[in-house]
Please model this.
Amino acid sequence: QRIHFPKSYLEIEQASQRLAFDELFFIQLASIKTREQWKQKATVDSIIVDRKQLSQFIDSLPFELTKSQQKVIGEISVDLQKGTPMNRLVQGEVGCGKTVVAATIIYLAHLNNLKTLYMAPTEILAFQHFDTLTKLLSPFGISVGIYTGSKKMVRRNTTEVIVGTHAL
Model:
């Protein structure tokens, strides 16, 4: 009533805020419902985490992981063993080590004979991630390719990790 037949600008503003709240509320409810459905049945294969090989990978890194990186890798490892889709956001400042966390999880995927798509929002970032992941993963025989709007360097059957933009 107030959005269609307002008596004042204040009513329009309040009604708009209420409609925006309702929309976000229903989106959140739908997300919760989907997550609960995911928990009810296994929808993906569980990943086996070989602690010994994981430690070898981490020990091979040219630096020591921070406590936060170790914690996140541990939490993600637990999630991957559940057999349900993971809903996780890893965030941090530029240079804080998010890519090495991703590389570690990519290594776990490799140990389970899985391939990885790694998407970056821009070509510049895609190329940076390609370089970093190549340095970290190639000593373990993991091939990394790149696929962006301007560059497609992928061997279809042998590339285990493909880094790219939305072109993926």
Notes: Strands lie at 116-119, 144-147, 152-153, 161-164. Residues 120 and 165 are 5 Å apart (CA to CA).
